[in-house]
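Shipment paperwork, digital attachment
Item: protein structure file
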Amino acid sequence: MRRRGRSPAGKVKIEWSPNFAYALGLLAADGCLSPDGRHIVFVSKDREQVENFLRALGIVNSIGKNSTGHWRAQFGDVLFYRYLLSIGFMPNKSKIIGAVSVPREYFFDFLRGSFDGDGSTYSYWDPRWKSSFMFYTVFASASMSHINWLRREISKRLGVKGHITRDREGTTMQLKYAKRTSLKLLRTMYGGGDVLCLRRKRLKIVRMLAIVGQKL
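Attachment content:
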């Protein structure tokens, strides 16, 4: 009788938590699943972002640089890979990813990861009105299906409506929230506590809100 092979061991503990949800938000934005059915790859221009990704998953892994000079981590975990497939991830996901099955209580942790990966904020003084300071929170994706899902979920949970535009090349969708809705969204994502996040983006938000006398 042939001996049965060993079952694949999981490197990542598959258990939902704020950090686990945050890691999956990062992965939805800046990560990819290798077509080999085993490896997960995460790339960012910020080393801190890659460190946060690994920390959120509770694993130790080497970090290197790719050919473009970006920081990169890759690890193999068949069980985690299969789990990701079951909740909405797939290889070559950039233009086709849609909804991701995230437990309701962890959606905004996932969203914070998505924001740290592909999101941004910007602000300016509007010359049309005296003392009018405008600021926006933006989520970006090459997948219209994913952007529409984010918009629906945010609206369902916060009762705010963002608007969708395309970049100049027409290849990336941008989901935008302005001023009051932006403030409500940012405060919900960051929760007013010590949450895992990309520090430079959080600092930019803190400085932006301080101009109008607001805090996270």
